[in-house]
Amino acid sequence: MEPPNRYGFVIMIRFLSCMLFAVALLARPASAQTAPSESEISGYTGLLAAAAAGDITRLQSQIRKGAKIDMRDAHGRTPLMVAGYRRDVAAAKALLAAGADIDARDSQAYDLMTIAAVANDLPMLKLAIASGGNAGQITSPYDGTALIAAAHLGHVEVVKALIAAKAPLDHVNNLAWTALIEAIVLGDGGARHLECVRALVAAGADVNLADGDGTSPLALARSRGYQAIAKILEAAGARP
């Protein structure tokens, strides 16, 4: 009897493990963020309640009365973050005008800019950038950035806005992935992720910065059959 091909078996197990890991990450980082639930909101008081309701008059009244502008809820969210999760630009503007910390992070290490990036909320993102938010801040449990989150999700205009704001193009998160790599390995190879890759490459992202296993972006794209992405990388001098 022919002995089993142990090497092939090990390779297959490793491949399946990698595939399962990638599938588990497909909803990340959006699922890692925890927006305030309706039950949490119903328990808010003061400035948090005003921010959640988008009640600018009440919000400004609370501030005049000395409410702590960066007070926190049970998950470390500030009123500004609550406004971000609610996609309420008017409330966010009022809080920023009163001195809210634009770079504050919640208990999961998300800031307003990354909250907006994940939500594909371009108006909120532009407000955060215009208000001096740090586009290079390390955020999320993955030690990533808003740019990595946006590239992963294929939010093209958000990616372009963050690039224009000088977000670091080649930051490596704790998964050993850059924004370029995430657009490939967590993208679907479609038009949105293609445009994210195009924007990153045009801005000067390192097309040869490999992942933690030493696999290049070009090799990752080819292995997934993303030919259009591979062509962009090849034209920029990417190596296999």
Molecular structure report:
The chain has 240 residues and is mainly alpha-helical. It has a domain at 29-112 and 120-136: Serine Threonine Protein Phosphatase 5, Tetratricopeptide repeat. 53% of the residues lie in helices and 0% in strands. It has 14 helices and no strands. Helix 3 (46-53) runs antiparallel to helix 4 (56-64).
Helix content: 40-55%
Total helical elements: 14
- What oligomeric arrangement do these chains adopt? single chain
Rg result: 21 Å
On the 0 to 100 scale, the average pLDDT is: 90
CATH superfamily of the domain at 29-112 and 120-136: Ankyrin repeat-containing domain
CATH topology of the domain at 29-112 and 120-136: Serine Threonine Protein Phosphatase 5, Tetratricopeptide repeat
* End-to-end CA span: 39 Å
Order of helices and strands: HHHHHHHHHHHHHH
- Overall geometric form: elongated
Q: What kind of sheet is the major sheet?
A: none
Strand content: under 5%
**What would CATH call the architecture of the domain at 29-112 and 120-136?**
Alpha Horseshoe
